[in-house]
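pasting for ref
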Amino acid sequence: MSEESKQLDRRDENTRRAGLLSNASRFVSYLLILLPAVLALLYVRAFGVSVVFFDAWSVVRLFDEWSSGTLGLLDLLEQHNEHRMFFPKGFELLLGWITGYDNVVEMYVIQICFLATLIILLLYSSLILGSITLGRSGVFGVIQAMALRYTTFSILAVVSI
C-alpha cells in the first residue's frame, strides 16, 4: 500500500467516526428533548387519581343530563368561561362513556396530546434549524417548556388534592 492510499484510508476512517459521533449526538439530543414528556407520563402513572377537579364539574352535569335522557345539542353549545366548547365536551362525554369517567385516562390522553404536539414541533424545528443536536437543543427546550407548562400545573393541582 502506498502512503497516499493510507492517508485516504485514515481520512475515510475519520469521516466515518465523525458521522457516527454526529448521529449519536443527534440521538441523545432527541432523547433529552423527549425526556420531560416521558417523565410527565410516568408522573401521571405514579400519582394520577380519578378525582373531579376545577372545571371538570361541568362535565359531571353533562353526564347527569345524559343519563336522564335530557342532554341536547344546546347543552353542548352552552357557554363555559367565555368559550363554547362543543368538541371538547363531546370528546369528554365519549371518553367518559368508554372509561366510566376515569380522570386518569383523561390525564393520559392530555399527556399524549402534548407529546404529539412536542413531536410535531420537534420535526418542524428540525426542518428550520437543520438537525437538532446538543448545541441546538436549547432552542427547542424553550418550546418544550412552553408546551408542557400548563399540563404540569394541572397534574400537580389534581395530585395535591
